[in-house]
Amino acid sequence: MSRADVRKLSLCTREPLSQETVGHALSVFSKIVGSCYGPTGRLKQLHNGMGGYVRTTSHSSALLGSLCVAHPALKLLTASVQHHVSRFGDGGLFAAVLCCSLLGRLRDLSVASRTRVPICQHLSSQCLGYLASEACGCKIPVDFSSSKILLDLVRSVLTSKCGCLLSRKEADHVGSLVLKAFLLTVPQKAGTGVDGFGKCLYVPMKDKRVLDSSICPGLLIETPEFHLARMLPGRRAASSPIRTALFCASLSGGVSDPGDGAVIVHHGVSLEAAVLDQLLSLGQRMVKDGVGLVICQKVIHPALKQYLKENQVVAVERVGVALMESLKEMTGSLAVASPQLLSPACYGRLKDLQTQYFAPKWFLHLIPEDSAVCSLVLCNRNETAWDELKLACQTAERVLQLTAKDPWVLLGGGCTETHLSAYLRHQNGDVPGSTLEDLGCSRSEFQLVADSFCRSLESVAGCLEHDNGQVLTDMTWGHAWSIPPDVPSHSPWSDFVVKCGCGLCGNREGLQWRVLQSQSCPFPPQSCVSESSVTSTDRPVLDCFTAKCNGLQVAVETACLLLDLAFVVEDQN
Q1: Backbone angles phi, psi at 171, to 5 degrees
Q2: Alpha-helix residue ranges (DSSP H) falling in 54-112
Q3: For residues 525 and 132, is the Cβ–Cβ distance under 8 A?
Q4: Rounded Cα–Cα distance for residues 89 and 87 (Å)
Q5: Backbone angles phi, psi at 411, to 5 degrees
Q6: What angle do CA 81, 87, 91 make, to 5 degrees?
Q7: Distance between CA atoms of 439 and 462, rounded to whole angstroms?
Q8: SS3 490
Q9: Residue 328: which pLDDT band, with cuts at 50, 70 and 90?
């Protein structure tokens, strides 16, 4: 007789954020993500106790995807940030650091949860409303007639990840390639791709110089040199397009598994010969229809390949499922799932077919007529640096797509966070009674929560300093400034600061500073953004407007949800 275990009762935890173990886990998680933040952030090595692949990274997508989080509250936090990154590509660490800081500061306040949450939501709405307004002093309009701001934005993304191991010259080179790739994927007509944009495919070239990276319109398919010599025909008319057939089914001549059925073969009939005759008949149809290129996701039978070669048709096999969508988009072909389904309506077109050599690899270069598909040959010193650089390039590509839809950028280097904090302190210095009544709180409760909210924003700017230096904020623009750790206490700060975090503001006479998160009188932060300041500043640090706004919203909403969490019920069976 089988033995049944007694079913255990579910574990119910009241006010989980007040538990010491949860608080410790939240503190550790906050230190992990905070120490990765910014251009000088520290790399993390991720591996499991059983061995296997070791990942070195500071990217939020790789970091959060590899961390093992046990408590449901932290699982909810990481899931919220991961969803944000999957949609916007950037701002994952910003959202995680801000959310952790809000939770750490607000949970210890002597203010009821039902009061803290509406105040936080009110302050978040004030931030987002200010960022969306014309009076916002920390955003810059993007002029698409010039490439400067776009290049500065891409460069800011690339240099924010130290694992890419890029010098200044290399960052400029890769940044220009990413911008060119983005421009190549902008479709000539609407409706291309998932978000209206085309596709950029990354071709790995590891153990190579970063400056050897290059961009090609169209698609590169890696092929051994001896295969290229056998598959490419002689010269053809350069002006004539190439008719293309695309197969997602195998053309190897194998018989598919009948499952529970049976295959009846008459006496004297060779099944292999019959299938081969069908494949050769398919080849004859394609030759008759003027097909010049046959691409198969899987394997092509050697006899069919030889027949196609004899008739000046290029046959490419084993391209894999990853390239199929790009091939369909680029050629306009329909992927044929069975040889019997081939018809002239399935054919697509290519402008040209060439070979490319990027030492030590050979590629077949498929050049489209007008498709928004390109290939970025990405080089770096080693596998780890290449993985980091690819993630950074994909992030920059996504940031450019978001900027094309909402043409604004925010000041980087912590200046947007400190500017928003100064704005909130000034706006809420004297809160109207009607606002307090709507929020259901007293003036002192509002000020406590608002101060914690502003300090949380400032703590995000403080996370950019990883070398024990001190972070200041000025009393004019509300920007972030950094000074080295070994500054004598009696020395004036003006002797050690040159430019703010974003690079738009420089030191000038009469400028006053305070230490970040210290008490000071509220002041209205001024805007330093002008056409001359943007164009004259060399290599300013910029952030994606859309990604940061959504990251702010995600951080506040997730923190409010967790602060409002009364019970966690876990099934222990």
Answers
A1: -65, -40
A2: 60-66, 72-88, 92-106
A3: no
A4: 6
A5: -70, 135
A6: 50
A7: 30
A8: coil
A9: very high
CB-based contact 60:488 (threshold 8 Å)? no
Question: Looking at residue 22, what is its pLDDT?
Answer: 81
If residue 318 lies in a helix (H) or strand (E), which one and from where to where? none
**Nearest alpha-carbon partner for 343 in 303, 291, 276, 275:** 291
- Separation CA 251–CA 545 (nearest Å): 49
pLDDT at residue 415 in the model = 96
Closest CA to 313 of 411, 244, 384: 244
Q: Helices 443-462 and 92-106 meet at what angle, rounded to 10?
A: 140
The Cα–Cα gap between 138 and 113 comes to: 32
At 87, list the tokens.
Answer: 């949609």
Give me the pLDDT at residue 69, please: 84
Name 235's Cβ contacts closer than 8 Å, sequence gap at least 6.
Answer: none
| CA–CA gap between residue 539 and residue 376 (Å, rounded) | 24
Q: Are 427 and 525 in contact (CB under 8 A)?
A: no
Amino acid at 405: K
Res. 17 pLDDT band, cuts 50 70 90:
confident
- Nearest Cα neighbor of 501 from 471, 523, 522 is 471
- How far apart are alpha carbons 93 and 30 in whole angstroms? 10
* Tally of CB atoms within 10 A around 193: 16
CA 467, CA 474: separation in Å to the nearest integer? Answer: 21
Angle (nearest 5°) at CA 98 between 89 and 74: 85
Bridge partners (DSSP) of residue 482 are 471
| pLDDT number for residue 255 | 62
179 alpha carbon, distance to own chain's centre: 15
Which residue bears the tokens 């073969």? 265
Say if residues 368 and 331 touch (Cβ distance below 8 Å).
Answer: yes
Q: How far is CA 172 from CA 158, 167, 175, 383, in A?
A: 9, 9, 5, 21
CA 172 to chain centre: 19
The contacts of residue 7 (CB under 8 Å, 6+ apart) are: 573
Q: How many other CB atoms are found less than 10 A from the CB of residue 53?
A: 8
Q: Which token pair is 526?
A: 């001024």
Give the chain's radius of gyration (CA, Å).
30
Region 408-419 average pLDDT: 96
Q: Using a pLDDT cut of 90, give the percent of the chain over it.
A: 60
CA dist., res. 199 & res. 349, Å (int): 18
Q: Are 219 and 324 in contact (CB under 8 A)?
A: no
How far is the C-alpha of 545 from the C-alpha of 568, rounded, in Å?
35
Q: Give yes or no for a contact between 109 and 448, defined as CB atoms under 8 angstroms apart.
A: yes
Helix/strand/coil (H/E/C) assignment for every residue in 447-459:
HHHHHHHHHHHHH
Question: Looking at this protein, which amino acid is placed at residue 165?
Answer: L
What is the residue whose two structure tokens read 């004859």? Answer: 284
The token pair that represents 503 in the structure block:
């690079």
Quote the mean pLDDT of the chain. Answer: 88
Q: How far is residue 213 CA from its own chain's centroid?
A: 20
Q: Which parts of 293-372 fold into alpha helices (H)?
A: 302-310, 324-331
- Rounded to two decimals, the pTM is 0.90
